[in-house]
Amino acid sequence: SANDFAAAGDDGSNFLVKLLAPITRGLAEWGATSASESGDAMSNLISSGHAMLSIAWTAIAAGAALMVASSNWFSSAVGAGGAADFLLGWGNWAIGGIMFIGALRAYFIPILPFLFVLAAGIALVAALLEAMIALPVWCMKWMKMEGGDDFASEGTRMGMLVIVNIFLRPSLAILAYCGSYPVFDVVLRTMDSMWATTFLAQTGGAVVGLIGFLFMSIIQLYLTWYVSLKLF
């Protein structure tokens, strides 16, 4: 675990940090590691994104309740209203970050395969239109036979490559689409199982708070985005 790697750093800290750091680090590692061993990595990604959105909405509801509770005469007399406003002002950034990360994991990254397949379809239509325009020129190339024993001369090979490209593009796109999911599953599962431990292992001797968890989630989101772009 991350606490095992950071044990040497914890030993050199003061008593309070030595007490709190393993707890916060363990909670962060538990929160950032996928709890589901079944199912594919994409479904686990969507589930974690919706979990983050639920946490953000719960925090918003709790902040609204805190604001209502701090708006009475007693809290104003003891100064609790200003403290609540201060805490909620800082909490808005954290809640917004969690909601943004959750929305990308739940909605945007899972739709990337469809966007790439759609782009492949548009590229196929564009290739067909280009071939229709180039067809008369290619036919005229066949009228002038050049010397040599080859079936196609240098002037006609480009047109044949265009035809092969058009016929192979749909099947290769579907094969790539089907093959990307198993590779994505293995790569993302491996990264998710290692990332929290790797990130938190270098925090020995320090308490990991909300800022550390947000930075860990942001970098993990970037890595997931990079993997998705490369594979799909």
What is the overall silhouette? elongated
What's the average pLDDT? 80
Percent strand equals under 5%
Q: What distance lies between the first and last C-alpha atoms, to the nearest angstrom?
A: 31 Å
Number of strands: 0
Weakly predicted, low-confidence segments: none
The helix content, as a percent range, equals over 70%
Which structural class best describes the helix and strand composition? mainly alpha
Strand/helix succession: HHHHHHHH
The radius of gyration over CA amounts to: 28 Å
The description of the largest β-sheet is:
none
Can you tell me about this structure?
The chain is mostly helical. The two termini are 31 Å apart. The longest helix has 64 residues, at 80-143. The chain has helices at 2-5, 7-11, 15-32, 41-69, 73-78, 80-143, 154-201, 210-231.
Question: Which descriptors would you attach to this protein?
Answer:
232 residues; mainly alpha; 8 helices
Q: Gist?
A:
The protein has 232 residues and is mostly helical. The protein has helices at residues 2-5, 7-11, 15-32, 41-69, 73-78, 80-143, 154-201, 210-231. Helix 3 (15-32) runs antiparallel to helix 7.
Write the layout of secondary structure elements.
Elements: H1 2-5, H2 7-11, H3 15-32, H4 41-69, H5 73-78, H6 80-143, H7 154-201, H8 210-231
